[in-house]
Amino acid sequence: MSDCLFCKIRDGEIPSTRVYEDDDVIAFNDISPKNQLHVLVVPRKHISTINDIEETDTALIGKMFLAAKKIAADAGYGDGYRVQMNCGEKGGQVVFHIHLHVMAGARTAP
Ligand code: AMP
Ligand code: ZN
């Protein structure tokens, strides 16, 4: 997707603070963190919303959670964290390339 913010971050066209990457996913700090740890886990493949996930993406979605687990543990929050994925405008989704919010620690924003 040429006009997708997270595709541009994936391709290095827009800067980000990357905390994890592998062949399938990348992860970077949220620009407006709501908690001390607030990382976005993003598949390299462009998928717009949860509603666009297909059967063939099943392993990829699992890998997003494995990345979330590792990121939380490496940041010292392995004993407690939250993950969230919003779907659609009415569900609070702003960037239409699926991403898992991984959040832990004290709140830093309302
Ligand atoms: P959502 O509302 O679930 O679509 O979440 C989008 C998230 O992307 C928000 O938490 C934003 O703070 C975050 N965000 C927007 N632009 C950037 C950016 N350039 N780098 C990192 N995070 C971003
Ligand atoms: Zn994209």
TrEMBL record:
Enzyme Commission number(s): 3.6.1.17
Domain HIT per the UniProt entry, residue ranges: 5-110
Active site annotation, chain numbering: H99
Motif (Histidine triad motif) on chain: 97-101
Gene Ontology molecular function: any one: bis(5'-nucleosyl)-tetraphosphatase (asymmetrical) activity
Enzyme class name: hydrolase
Domain of life: Bacteria
Gene3D superfamilies, alphabetized: HIT-like (3.30.428.10)
InterPro entries attached to this UniProt entry: Histidine_triad_CS, Histidine_triad_HIT, HIT-like, HIT-like_sf
Alphabetic keyword roster: Hydrolase
Protein name as catalogued: Bis(5'-nucleosyl)-tetraphosphatase (Asymmetrical) (EC)
Lineage of the organism: Bacteria, Pseudomonadati, Pseudomonadota, Gammaproteobacteria, Thiotrichales
